[in-house]
Design brief:
Elements lengths: L3 E7 L2 H11 L4 E8 L9 E2 L7 H11 L3 E4 L2 H5 L2 H7 L4 E2 L3 H8 L1 H11 L6 E4 L5 H6 L5 E4 L9 E4 L2 H15 L2 E4 L5 E10 L2 E4 L4 E2 L2 E3 L3 E4 L4 E4 L6 H20 L7 E9 L5 E7 L6 H5 L7 H9 L14 E8 L20 E3 L2 E7 L2 E3 L5 E3 L3 E9 L2 H12 L25
Parallel strand pairs: 1-2, 1-4, 2-3, 4-5
Antiparallel strand pairs: 6-9, 7-8, 7-9, 10-11, 10-16, 12-15, 13-14, 15-18, 16-17, 18-23, 19-20, 20-23, 21-22
Length: 428
């Protein structure tokens, strides 16, 4: 087969990881990104079409004559991008809008899980401010409050402070009309990304994200400050239970929907002290930064895998992964996850390490070139330093070696990525 022309939709570190993976695929002749970022421009052709412009993306895909569209972020999926692309007979990796409701509506996701008997925490929907106090009494602290909207990973409040919980509930009701309160699940979190279509599914090596902004999981939630894979907490026993109790019933449900699910189902797990997995949340796309540490693990041609899933033929492809470890550490702008200070010059970002089986490089996210050709910050999460190595210790050492050489005024990063897997190790 001649090489495919692939369009990647999105502009973050996840999309840079996808562009790198696809550019290395023998099945792919060229990669295009809309809108992309400074990183994707080095391995693909960027097009100035925002991911939110559904018709603009569709027109671009048609004009380019692409063989495959890979949708990175969740919002275009919820808003029907895959639906429109498939109307044009363009194979698309990313579920239709009905399937995307698993992320677009937490109420919907919880209802589906309850109907299928999938282990998850109980929840209540609260829509009256006057009832907040009474409803809080029915849950043990810490209280988990979630907005039922797409909030970029930052619409969740977990707190043992009654005052803070009350304010989060009240603000959610005032902003959205209602808010969810969920049972707090204790244990250790992990993420399992599952590529699926109606023919089958493939579970990617489990990863672990670090959502809190500060060391020791302190401070507010973020979109993710770093990750590593495979995550040791996801033991063979845990993965077997995840497959049997969560992935299998979800796959059965989704393959029998009106329109089959074709894309990635992100399973956010909480694993308790007995190794029992429960679902914290579903997302309908590759995670960020989880993509940065799972895509490099593919041994099978990434383009072929994503195309097969988009055409409902995933079961025809044998997917294998390299026996290596990957880690990534996010560098964030001053003020993140609050009010971010941007437009600052980034130095040292282009360092790479390649020593046998050890690789180190940067995934760019919130960064662009200014008129002088300098790389400057444009968002909260600016980049992530990624290491790939035979061991997790080596992968993390490489990540930190690279990130310590990067200069961005006011920036910050966590110094303890991987601390749950390597509690006695400090890398910075």
């Amino acid at each position: 087969m001649s090489g495919m022309k692939v369009l990647v939709v999105g502009s973050g570190g996840r999309e840079h990881a996808l562009a790198i993976g696809l550019s290395k695929s023998d099945s792919v002749s060229s990669v295009h990104c809309a809108p992309g970022n400074a990183g994707t421009s080095m391995v693909a052709t960027n097009h100035d079409v925002p991911a939110s412009e559904i018709e603009g993306i569709v027109n671009l895909a048609v004009d380019l004559g692409v063989s495959l569209v890979v949708v990175g972020p969740e919002a275009p999926l919820v808003n029907g991008l895959s639906d429109r692309l498939r109307q044009e007979s363009i194979p698309t990796f990313g579920p239709h809008s009905e399937g995307a409701l698993l992320e677009g509506s937490k109420t919907h996701a919880k209802t589906v899980m309850q109907s299928l008997g999938i282990p998850t925490g109980r929840f209540e929907s609260i829509d009256e401010i006057d009832s907040i106090e009474a409803r809080m009494e029915s849950f043990e602290p810490p209280w988990v409050i979630k907005r039922d909207v797409l909030a970029g990973g930052k619409g969740v409040t977990v707190t043992s402070s009654r005052k803070e919980a009350y304010e989060a509930l009240r603000n959610g009701i005032e902003t959205d009309g209602f808010v969810l309160m969920e049972e707090h699940l204790s244990g250790e979190e992990a993420s399992v990304l599952v590529i699926m279509d109606e023919s089958g599914y493939v579970m990617l090596p489990a990863s672990q994200d670090h959502k809190r902004v500060g060391n020791n999981d302190e401070g507010p939630n973020t979109g993710g400050m770093g990750a590593y894979a495979p995550a040791p907490v996801a033991t063979p026993s845990v993965l077997a239970r995840t497959r049997e109790e969560i992935v299998e019933p979800m796959h059965h449900h989704l393959r029998n929907s009106n329109i089959p699910y074709r894309g990635c189902l992100y399973v956010g797990l909480m694993i308790d002290e007995n190794g029992a997995p429960s679902v914290v949340e579903f997302n309908v796309r590759l995670g960020d930064p989880e993509a940065q540490v799972t895509i490099p693990l593919f041994q099978t041609d990434l383009g072929l895998v994503l195309l097969a899933a988009s055409e409902g033929k995933l079961s025809d492809v044998e997917v294998e992964f390299q026996k290596v470890h990957a880690a990534t550490v996010v560098l964030a702008s001053e003020g993140y996850p609050g009010n971010v200070i941007s437009e600052r010059v980034i130095e040292g970002w282009d360092a790479t390490i390649e020593e046998g089986k050890v690789l180190g490089f940067v995934h760019l996210a919130g960064a662009k070139r200014n008129d002088s050709g300098e790389l400057i910050s444009t968002g909260g999460r600016v980049l992530s330093a990624t290491g790939i190595a035979p061991s997790l210790v080596e992968a993390l050492e490489i990540s930190y070696q690279i990130i310590e050489g990067i200069n961005l005024e006011g920036s910050h990063y966590r110094e303890d990525i991987g601390f749950r897997a390597l509690p006695c190790t400090k890398f910075s």
